[in-house]
Design goal:
By secondary structure, this protein is mainly alpha-helical. The chain contains two helices and no strands. The termini are far apart.
């Protein structure tokens, strides 16, 4: 398993539906909640055309 260091953290409040989506995605893809949330955040950044 490859471990990536993430030096920054972010805390946010989610609706119950948003939390369920992240949990379901993590479970289906055998990922942690953090991995699933980062993947969704990356997809949102790409969808908005924001360059990182």
């Amino acid at each position: 398993m490859i471990y990536t260091k993430f030096p920054a953290s972010l805390a946010l409040k989610l609706s119950q539906n948003q939390r369920r989506v992240v949990e379901r995605m993590a479970e289906q893809e055998k990922k942690s909640l953090g991995e699933a949330a980062r993947e969704l955040l990356d997809a949102g950044i790409d969808a908005r055309g924001i360059e990182c």
